[in-house]
Amino acid sequence: MILTGPEIAKQVGSGRITVAPFDNSRCTTNSYDLALGRRLALYQDEVLDPRREPAYELRDIPDDGYLLAPGDFVLAETAEQIGSDNYVPLIHAKSGTARLGLFVHVTADLIDLGFVGCSTLQLYATLPVRIWPGMLIAQVTFWVPYGPIELYQGKYQHADGPQVSRSYQDHPGVANG
């Protein structure tokens, strides 16, 4: 079961959903619009290996925006901290963003119960597109879980800023450097 926009606002008010900062005008029929934060993470390695910690560079999006060329992949942050111990958040691109040729969070949309933090957005440009801090780029929906709940305590908990892959932490005994 998906929550409607008014129910999302009600659950934020009761503390059962975290969206901070929260702007009631960004509640839609059944989602909440998320804004792009200021920070990006860009991988520096020519080949990424999930068994090794990746090299990356953090950059701020300038006030005049950041131009993504076709084929560019960057990690970005949501401006909001989101999460819930009671509902399962799923992040999706806004349709207007997708129509600009920008794939947003296509392959990792499920947010674990109990996660609270800034979410990392995977951005992949199919066309030249300029991104701006504060632009409404994605939307989050909240779903009612069924069954026993175990809260997330993983490696991305309380994320602040775009988080690069930490897959290397899932490979014990492998050199990480």
Overview of this protein structure:
This protein has 177 residues and is mainly β. It is 8% helix and 36% strand. It has two helices and ten strands; from the N terminus they run αββββββαββββ. Strands 1, 2, 3, 5, 6, 7, 8 and 10 form an eight-stranded antiparallel beta sheet that branches. A two-stranded antiparallel ribbon has the order 4-9. The longest helix is centred in the first third of the chain and has 10 residues. The radius of gyration is 17 Å and the shape is globular. 28% of the residues are buried.
Would you spell out the secondary-structure blueprint of this structure?
Layout: H1 5-14, E1 18-20, E2 32-43, E3 56-60, E4 66-68, E5 73-83, E6 88-93, H2 95-98, E7 102-104, E8 116-125, E9 129-131, E10 136-143
Antiparallel strand pairs: 1-5, 2-3, 2-5, 2-10, 4-9, 5-8, 6-10, 7-8
Short descriptors:
single chain, 177 residues, mainly beta, Deoxyuridine 5'-Triphosphate Nucleotidohydrolase, Chain A, eight-stranded antiparallel β-sheet, two-stranded antiparallel ribbon, nucleotide metabolism, dUTPase-like_sf
Strand tally, please? 10
Radius of gyration: 17 Å
Helix content: under 10%
Counting H and I runs of at least 4 residues, what is the number of helices? 2
* Proportion of beta-strand residues: 35-45%
* Low-confidence blocks of residues: none
